């Protein structure tokens, strides 16, 4: 008797991907990549959705629904800290 390969798959809607950030600005890809990096550093899974070959289309950062509130908080904190905090963190990581 064959085993069901989908028996242990979590089909919860908490894992549905939702958009945290979207932009069609000229720097959208870079901004999405930066947000994705911040989320990864905080342990939040995320994906950048967009096509570099068609830059007029929107870029998005998506996260699982269960992580949306935490990801929003992290993004707000990063924006509040501003570029000076990013430069300081980069300098700290280079000292190691």
Could you walk me through the main structural features you see in this protein, from its secondary elements to its overall organization?
This protein has helices at residues 28-41, 68-95, and strands at 17-23, 47-49, 59-64. By secondary structure, the chain is α+β, with helices and mostly antiparallel strands. It has one domain: Alpha-Beta Plaits (2-Layer Sandwich). The protein has a 3-stranded antiparallel sheet, with helices on one face.
In summary, what is this structure?
The chain is an alpha+beta fold and 96 residues long. Helix content is 44%, strand content 17%.
Name the features.
96 residues, alpha+beta, Alpha-Beta Plaits, 3-stranded antiparallel sheet, 2 helices, 3 strands, 44% helix, 17% strand
Would you identify the regions where 5 or more consecutive residues have pLDDT less than 50?
none
Fraction in beta strands:
15-25%
Total helices: the number is 2
Assigned CATH superfamily: Hypothetical protein rpa1041
The shape, in one word, is globular
Q: How does the major sheet shape up?
A: 3 strands, antiparallel
Overall CATH class? Alpha Beta
CATH domain fold name = Alpha-Beta Plaits
Could you give the order of the helices and strands? Answer: EHEEH
Measured as a percent range, the helix fraction is: 40-55%
Mean pLDDT: 84
């Amino acid at each position: 008797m064959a085993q069901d390969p989908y028996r242990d798959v979590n089909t919860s809607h908490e894992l549905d991907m939702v958009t945290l950030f979207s932009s069609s600005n000229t720097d959208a890809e870079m901004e999405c990549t930066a947000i994705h990096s911040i989320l990864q550093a905080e342990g939040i899974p995320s994906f950048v959705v967009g096509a570099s070959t068609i830059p007029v289309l929107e870029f998005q950062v998506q996260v699982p629904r269960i992580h949306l509130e935490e990801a929003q908080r992290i993004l707000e904190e990063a924006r509040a800290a501003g570029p000076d905090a990013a430069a300081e963190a980069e300098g700290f990581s280079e000292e190691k």
